[in-house]
Amino acid sequence: MTVLQVVWFKRDLRLQDNAALVAAAERGPVLPLYVIEPELWQQPTSALRHWQVVLHALQDLQQALAERGAKLCVRIGDMPKVLEQLRDNLGSFTLHAHEEIGEDWSFQRDKTVAQWCRNNGSAFCETPQFGVFRGQHDRDGWAARWQHFMRRDLVELPLQTLWQQADSSPNWQQWQPDQCPHPLPGLALADAQHTLEDFLEHRGEQYHLQMSSPISAPEACSRLSVQLASGRISMRSVVQNTWRIQQQVKTRPAEERGTWPRALSAFQSRLHWHCHFMQKFESEPALEFYNMARSCDGLREDSFSEDKFQAWCSGHTGYPFIDACMRYLLTTGWINFRMRAMLMSFAAYDLWLHWRRPAHHLAQLFIDFEPGIHYPQIQMQSGTTGINTLRIYNPVKQSTDQDPNGTFIRQWVPEVSGFDDLRIHSPWQATALEQMAAGCVVGEHYPRPIVDHLTAARFAKAQFATVRRSSAGKADSKNVMLKHGSRKNSKRRTA
Ligand SMILES: Cc1cc2nc3c(=O)[nH]c(=O)nc-3n(C[C@H](O)[C@H](O)[C@H](O)COP(=O)(O)OP(=O)(O)OC[C@H]3O[C@@H](n4cnc5c(N)ncnc54)[C@H](O)[C@@H]3O)c2cc1C
To answer: Are the CB atoms for 373 and 274 separated by under 8 Å?
Structure first.
């Protein structure tokens, strides 16, 4: 007797190279299921813009399934209740899903689902979708496993797949999470495969040279993060397509290669980093709550300033470049890596804010929120990993380096647009006359800087120096390196 195979789509909203779906299709008739879980949308990292991404992706998935004669079943409710309804209506089934490297809420939910399956005699088959390995507690052998995972053939849905149908919750397309902040009017998602090809064949040639400025990065970077985070494209197919183009470039005459070899190599490294960071979170999910180096506990907890936090969140810190980046992010849902790092560094070092609430704010704003990258990056940019060199970004230097003519600032912080190319980076240094001429009196039309960067940076460095010199700090550094450190350099050292 063939058993019904329920494929529970989560952050893998695609048909191509979907190992969970293919495994199900090989075993029996498939019911494709997506569950809108209201509780998920009440978590502190959820935002309406994330739901907009999911809705868009679900509509595309529905269309792709319809082309194969299948119907997506979308139910609203808690997972165990939905599973119970399906069992009552359709009989017993096997449940398939990709492993989720999510926050504690989704981890607990997955445990509840596994328990439900055990209690009800259903198998629950989970398949990895990234080069991230469950049960891997340190980095020994990780890089080889990543290579092996990425080199495996992409999987294809059999043409003769049998489908099962079940009714969706009525009007699910009109569903909206309650009190979820940060809608993004007009949000549209490009086709994932087209975005990848456009990057690898046209946009990406200057990737490594133009990724750092918020002016050039939107075009020069791949912009695949939202596609990867929602699972509209598989990481394996991105890696393999990039390898293929790298090989093609090698066959071109040297004078026709341009800057492609370095651009593609830099891009390939980032794809590796994606899984490298996610593996940290998979191995240590407590990073959502606690400092990676527990010797940093107590450093910032008692000095949280709500006013400074709100000024940072809304882009009113008095540093035009910081404010421009935050306002751009509020409006678009994406910003490049360096600016993300600078925003977090400003919150953590200049404002001396514990990273947790800033992490939630940024997570809500990023349409590509990926917990496995997000929390380890947040901790790295806050100095709490115990192993990385402190990277305290000077907001004025970043401003003059990445936006020398103030073009980006003028667009996003119009209050200061009347200043010349020098003063626009630090309007508080303008004379009273210059401020009048620019139509912007600092402290009246635009805030004074809420902190002095150099003083704040000096304080932060001294605090961390004390922690890192302590015996607890030294022990942390060793243990964190053993658990999470890349083995690349240590191999080289041994050699
Ligand atoms: C504080 C902070 C929080 C971040 N939070 C997220 C997040 O929630 N989701 C997310 O996808 N990225 C996050 N990043 C990493 C990085 O900024 C984004 O992946 C990148 O900007 C997305 O744009 P892109 O797809 O055009 O990237 P590209 O530069 O084109 O890179 C291609 C892919 O490589 C991966 N990648 C690139 N840079 C990194 C990196 N530094 N670390 C790990 N993976 C990387 C991503 O999957 C990205 O989509 C964060 C970085 C910082 C500093």
So the answer is: yes
pLDDT at 389: 87
Say what the pLDDT of residue 163 is.
Answer: 98
SS3 153: coil
Which pLDDT score, from 0 to 100, does residue 492 have?
Answer: 42
Q: In what order do the strands lie in the sheet with 73-76?
A: 73-76, 30-36, 4-9, 93-98, 124-127
Among 234, 237, 272, 377, the mutation site with the greatest number of ligand 1 atoms within 8 A of its Cβ is: 377
Mapping DSSP onto H, E and C, the string for 348-374 reads: HHHCCCCCHHHHHHHHHHCCCCCHHHH
Percent of the chain clearing pLDDT 90 (strictly above) = 94
Helices (H), 425-452: 432-438
Give me the CATH topology for the region 287-486: DNA Cyclobutane Dipyrimidine Photolyase, subunit A; domain 3 (1.10.579)
Which residue pairs, CB below 8 angstroms and at least 24 apart, start in 356-363?
A: 356/289, 357/304, 357/309, 358/309, 358/312, 359/45, 360/44, 360/45, 361/313, 362/329, 363/45, 363/47
Across 83-117, b (16+ Cβ under 10 Å) vs e yields beebbeebeebbbbbbbbbbbebbeebbeebeebb
Give the CA distances from residue 220 to residues 54, 288, 402, 493, in Å, rounded to whole numbers and listed in that order.
25, 31, 14, 35
- Residues at CB less than 6 angstroms from ligand 1: 211, 221-225, 228-229, 270-271, 273-274, 277, 336-337, 340-341, 344, 366, 368-370, 373-374, 377-378, 381
In Å, what is the CA distance from 490 to each residue of 63, 223, 387, 482? 49, 32, 14, 10
CB atoms within 10 A of CB 418: 18
Topology annotation, domain 4-129:
Rossmann fold (3.40.50)
Residue ranges covered by each domain of the chain: 4-129, 192-283, 287-486
214-243 burial, b at 16+ Cβ within 10 Å, e below that, comes to bbbbbebbbbbbbbbbbbbbbbbbbbbbbe
Residue-averaged pLDDT of the chain = 96
Q: For residues 116 and 358, what is the distance between their CA atoms, to the nearest angstrom?
A: 35
Residue nearest to ligand 1 atom 12, measured at CA: 373
Q: Please choose from 211, 356, 361, 373 the residue to mutate so as to test ligand 1's pocket, defined by most ligand atoms within 8 A of CB.
A: 373
439 versus 1: which is more confidently predicted?
439
- For residues 484 and 280, the answer to whether their CB atoms sit within 8 Å is yes
How far lies 132's CA from each of 127, 129, 144, 148, 422, in Å? Answer: 11, 8, 12, 12, 46
Ligand 1 pocket test target in 225, 342, 388 with most atoms within 8 Å of CB? 225
